[in-house]
Amino acid sequence: AAAVAPLLRIEGLSVRFGGIVALDGVGFDVAAGQVCGLIGPNGAGKSTLFNCLSRLYGWQAGRIEFAGRALDTLPRHRMAALGIGRTFQNLALFTSMTVRENVRVGTHTHQHAGFLRDALRLPGVRRLEEEAEARTEEFIALLDLGAVADRRVADLPFGTQKRVELARALAARPRLLLLDEPACGLNHEELEGLGDLILALRARLGLTVLLVEHHMGLVMRVSDKVVALNFGRKIAEGTPEAVRRHPEVIRAYLGD
Ligand code: ADP
Ligand code: MG
């Protein structure tokens, strides 16, 4: 039988900023439906890799393939249509808008993406609106935001704002979700909830997740595999346990 191609394939990816080498020949695969943890000390290149995957940064060498297509041939505005969604290390929300309005923006991204396809099925504008509203409510419920749906994002605690950002990213129906330090600033209870949610998303939606995270407990709990970076290089890849015990990983964290 033919091998199943990975959803995401990164090969020999290199990114330089002047004299700084942010990524140096990094390569790994993520299979569909997998949660892949991406760890490494500050400055290792994790966010740079995410920025390449969302086409915010270019790269000097290497290749990124998503669902069998080279990423660099696609215009940036097609990213959502292609099915790559993300959250940011520093939140990127419309803080003067309500929770519901923010989540609704996510469905809008998806609608634009599928506009032609939807139009050919002649659903009518009304149906599109109803579908967007239904999906907005679905993700508000999934992220337990019902009680604050009409509040302004700016007035909510940080942990809640992070759930709003996640709801908005999910409302665009990504196939691959990039999470940049989602546990940062969360309390213990919120952290448990986040772990449950990531596992539920994989089980229920078959979502593929690339997770940048410093919180080792969360990475260990939810990841099928882990990739470790240090100074822009991949230093380990494997099961969470194997990567955690890898001598180069231990050295990288002790030297941090
Ligand atoms: P991490 O997310 O693992 O902490 P980053 O990817 O943010 O690491 O950074 C990797 C290296 O690339 C760092 O040395 C950082 O200063 C540098 N870097 C990242 N983005 C830029 C940029 N836009 N301009 C210049 N240097 C950058
Ligand atoms: Mg970072």
Give a brief outline of the structure.
This protein has 10 helices and 10 strands. The chain has helices spanning 46-53, 79-82, 99-113, 115-120, 124-142, 158-171, 188-205, 216-222, 240-245, 247-254, and strands at residues 8-17, 20-30, 35-39, 61-66, 69-70, 84-86, 176-180, 208-212, 225-230, 233-238. A hairpin with a 2-residue loop joins strand 4 (61-66) and strand 5.
Can you walk through the features of this model?
The chain is of the alpha/beta class. The protein has helices spanning 46-53, 79-82, 99-113, 115-120, 124-142, 158-171, 188-205, 216-222, 240-245, 247-254; strands at residues 8-17, 20-30, 35-39, 61-66, 69-70, 84-86, 176-180, 208-212, 225-230, 233-238. It has two domains: 1-83 and 174-256, Rossmann fold; 94-173, no CATH class. The protein contains ten helices and ten strands. The model has no long low-confidence stretch (mean pLDDT 88). Bound molecules: adenosine-5'-diphosphate (ADP) and magnesium ion (MG). Residues 17, 20, 22, 40, 42-48 line the site of adenosine-5'-diphosphate (ADP). GO terms for molecular function: ATP binding; ATP hydrolysis activity.
What order do the helices and strands come in, and which of them pair?
Layout (H helix, E strand, L loop, with lengths): L7 E10 L2 E11 L4 E5 L6 H8 L7 E6 L2 E2 L8 H4 L1 E3 L12 H15 L1 H6 L3 H19 L15 H14 L4 E5 L7 H18 L2 E5 L3 H7 L2 E6 L2 E6 L1 H6 L1 H8 L2
Parallel strand pairs: 3-8, 3-9, 6-7, 7-8
Antiparallel strand pairs: 1-2, 1-4, 4-5, 9-10
Helix pairs in contact: 3-5, 3-6, 5-6
The protein binds adenosine-5'-diphosphate (ADP) and magnesium ion (MG).
